[in-house]
What does this fold into?
Amino acid sequence: MGRRWNAVVAGLCLLALGASPAMALTKVTSALGGDGLLFVMHHLAIDGGFFKEEGLDVESVDVGSGPRQAAALMGGSSEFTLLGFIHVLKSIAQGGSLVALAPGLNLLDIQLVLSNDAMRKTGITPAMPVDERVNRLKGLRISITSPGSTTDTWTRSLLKARGHDPDSFITIQPLAGGNPMLAALAKKATDGFSWGPPQSHMAVAQGIGEIAIDPFTDTIPEIAGVPYVVIITSRDTLKNKPELLRHAVRAYTKAMKFAREQPDAARQMVRKDFPDIDDKIFEASWANYRKALPTSPMISRETFEKTQAWLNITQPKPINIAYETAFYDAFAKEAAADILGK
It folds into this structure.
C-alpha cells in the first residue's frame, strides 16, 4: 500500500509540473564551454533530476569556449546554455539575437594562475596591491579559452583598466578549457592561465603554480557585482520553443532552491561529478562557489549595468544595450513566484 501511495503521489507531482509520468522526455542539447565548477547550476539541475521533473532530457556537450557556445545557440544546435553574460551584449551589438533568461553564477570567478617560475620572475606576491601585480605581468604568456571569450575579456580588462595594451604587454594564447590550460602550464608551454576552480587549485596542489589574482579574495573594482554565466538562448529558440525554455528556467530555479535549502546534499551531488579532484581542492573550491550561487532566477538591472560597464573597458566602441533587450524576464518571474514564492 505504501509503495502504491508513493507512486500516486509522484504521478500527481509530475502532473502538477505540467508533465505526464508516461510522457516521453523532450531531448535537448546544451553546449557548455569548458569543464570547471562555473557550471555548477547545470550539474545540480541534471543530477538533482530537476530537468527530468520538467520533462527535459538534457545532453551536455563541451565545445570548449564561450564563442563556440554562442555559435551553437545561434545555429540552433544548442537550445540553451550557461554562458558569460557579455556574450548576450556582444551578440545584440553585432546584430545577433542572444538573450538571457536567468543567472547561473553571481560572481566572475576567473582567477589568474602563474607558474612558479613566472612568480619568481615577476616578483609578484599575494600581499601586493592588485594594480602592482597586474603591472608586473609584462612579457608573460597567458592562456585563455578563445578570442572574445569571457576569459579573454577578463584578462584584457585587467590590463586595460590599468593603462596597458593587452596585445603588446603580454602574449595571449587560446587553449580551450581548464584541463588544457593546466596541462600547458605543467609543460611550461605557458606562464599562466585565466580560469577558475578546480584547475586553479589543482595547479597549486601539483606544485606547478600559484593563484596570483583571485576575485574570491581580491578587490577588483571593475568586476565588483559582475556575474559570470547566465542562462542564455537565442531569440529564434525563444520564439519557436518557448515551453522548452520555460521548463529549463524552472529546472534551474529548483536547483537554486535545492542548493540554498540543502547545501550539504548539493555539495555531495556536485562532488560526484568531479571524482578525480582531491578532496581538499574540491572543498576549497566549493567553499567559494557556495557564495556565488544565485538564489533567484531574476537578473537585476544593477547587475546588467555593471556587466555592460565592465565589457566596455575592452570595447573600441562602447556598447549601449537596453536591459529589457538583454534579459527576457517572463519565465524567471513565473518561476520565482511559483517555486520560490517570490
Observations:
- Residues 45 and 255 are 5 Å apart (CA to CA).
- The first strand starts at residue 26 and ends at 32.
